[in-house]
Write a structure and sequence with these properties.
7 strands, 7-stranded antiparallel sheet, alpha+beta, single chain, about 130 residues
Length: about 130
């Protein structure tokens, strides 16, 4: 699969049976439909709200449809790319860690195994 941000070939990282596609060059990560919820666990408060930005559109790495920009998380402070066909979610470098911080700030305690995985794979301030 090619990275929607830089077109590099992505590699697969497995976490507890969930296969995530990670770009070696730009460190973005692709979550197929339902994978983010599997990694974060139930009740992760993953509301998506549409947002406007001047950031360039990206194509879904699976169906090639133009993805929309959406805010995710309890405070909606993390902007990601979302496939309009429901294929999955694209997080630029650091955005998965930012989402974890946002969830913690909202009082959502993630399991230690999830936090350890996020710290290793998707570093962000405060994770």
């Amino acid at each position: 699969m090619k990275c929607p941000a830089c077109e590099s070939v992505m590699f697969v990282v497995e976490y507890e049976g969930v296969e995530l596609d990670v770009c070696q060059d730009c460190q973005g990560v692709w979550f197929d439909r339902g994978e983010l919820e599997l990694v974060l666990g139930d009740g992760a408060e993953l509301q998506l709200t549409a947002t406007h930005t001047d950031e360039a559109e990206r194509d879904c790495p699976l169906c090639r449809a133009a993805m929309g920009k959406m805010n995710i998380g309890p405070a909606g402070g993390v902007m990601i790319d979302v496939c309009p066909e429901g294929c999955g979610l694209w997080f630029d470098r650091g955005e998965v860690g930012d989402l974890a911080v946002s969830l913690q700030d909202a009082g959502r305690q993630l399991p230690q195994s999830v936090m350890d995985f996020l710290r290793r794979m998707f570093p962000a301030d405060g994770v």
